[in-house]
Amino acid sequence: MKFATGESKTAIQYQDLAGGGLNNQSVTLHGAVHALRDMGGITFLTLRMAQGTVQCVAAPGQLPEGLCEECTVSLTGTVCAEPRSPGGFEIHLEKLDILSRPAEPMPVPVSKRKLNLNLDTELSLRPLVLRELRHRAVFRVQEGICRAFRDYLHSQGFTEIHTPKIVHAGAEGGSNIFRLDYFGRKAFLAQSPQFYKQMMVGVYERVFETAPVFRAEKHNTVRHLNEYTSLDFEMGYLESFYDVIEMETGFLKHCFRLLGAEYGRELALLGVELPALEHIPCVRFDEAKRLAAERYGRPIRDPYDLEPEEEVNIGRYAREEWGSDFVFITHYPSKKRPFYAMDDPDDPRYTLSFDLLYKGMEVTTGGQRIHQWQEQVDKMRSRGMHPEEFESYLSIHKHGMPPTAVWASAWSG
User: Fold this and answer.
1) What φ, ψ does residue 18 adopt, rounded to 5°?
2) Spatial contact of 320 and 340, defined as CB atoms under 8 Å apart
3) 345, 358 in Cβ contact below 8 A?
4) Greatest CA separation found in the chain?
5) Nearest CA to 280 among 332, 331, 354, 356?
């Protein structure tokens, strides 16, 4: 009889090799054959591992019959420093065992630097295309962003939560929600965890979630996705909605440091340069529109929202005037913000809310929320809403809530 003890063998990973600590040592690796190049006297084999690719050098007769791209293998060899190789090292092969062979050749050459496929072909071959290094890099960077989000918020006293994705009402109203038949009852896929986040502030004070959200929007622009990974947090006992802006700025700084330190290969593959971030300018909505209109000669057409071209011009202005690719736009008009957004007590036409623009594209949104019961009920009724339909949500207001503010990403994944 065997007993499980929780002890497992740790395989050598790419990062163990890249640091140079295993140079001149014999190691055993596993992975897939990403590419094979027969140079006559020797063969170069590129091994695709979980975190990167390794160049292996085989002498004549060392490779078994039938070895081809996408074979999965286990190999043993000596780690040798080689500045000309990717990563600065290579493996001089001693032994290779084939673990599995593909039943047929790949329909696309994933070992090429760029596949140049049209979107329909790429999506139909998605499970295979993801093996291509640039495609893999996208998901690694996504991992780094989510990891940074969790790490930073844990360090700031936040508690991670997991909210329902099948809900009985939309969080933001409108028609862009997926309807479901929930055992004969009407239900929806969650647009966001807004209500649940605020409820949990009454429990933990500071909460966050990394999870999918769903929007019934056609993919007619780069700003629309049916499903994406949203980063959300909510914090209570704040003095001002600028507390949330400072928290977000701290997260962004931590995120860029982590990506730069541990995801450099992926960023290089994608041709991404991390933005410099020391501070971010904060500009009122009406002031930002005026400045952009005056600088670039585009008249203001919609006084209640930012048009895409206006966002581009505001981003351009922030770069020219303040040397920043980021800019917080604050105090959006109440008319264009959700019913739970707190109005500015100094001017109720505007809210204590913000969006973050990066190079003219909205990437996050946030702001202070109404926490007093009567104030929330009055705002609902002023918008023609029926508070009785939100009885569960309003119970937190009725029974005491601290001042709270919310933040959510508009990043897709």
Assistant:
1) -65, -25
2) no
3) no
4) 82
5) 356
**How large is the C-alpha radius of gyration of the chain?**
26
Lowest mean pLDDT among 167-176, 262-271, 328-337: 167-176
Q: Which helix (H) or strand (E) holds 191?
A: none
Q: How far is CA 107 from the centre of its chain?
A: 30
- The Cα 283–Cα 311 span in angstroms is 13
Q: 197-232, pLDDT tens digit by residue?
A: 999 999 999 999 999 999 888 776 666 788 889 999
Within 10 angstroms of residue 153's Cβ, the number of other Cβ atoms is 24
DSSP 278: S
Q: DSSP for 71-83, please give it.
A: -EEEEEEEEEE-T
* Predicted confidence (pLDDT) per residue in 3-32, tens digit: 998 888 888 888 888 888 899 999 999 999
Closest CA to 328 of 252, 404, 256: 252
Compute CA 68 distance to the chain's CA centroid, rounded to the nearest angstrom.
Answer: 35
Q: Using a pLDDT cut of 90, give the percent of the chain over it.
A: 80
For 35, the 3-state DSSP assignment is: strand
Backbone φ, ψ for residue 371 (5° rounding): -120, -10
CA distances from residue 342 to 240, 313, 384, 404, 405 in whole angstroms, order as listed:
11, 28, 17, 10, 9
pLDDT tens-digit readout, 218-268: 776 666 788 889 999 999 999 999 999 999 999 999 999 999 999 999 999
Distance (Å, rounded) from C-alpha 368 to C-alpha 355?
12
Which tokens sit at 284? 């009122």
DSSP for 142-180 reads HHHHHHHHHHHHHHTT-EE----SEESS-SS-SS---EE
Token pair 């990394």 is at which residue? 210
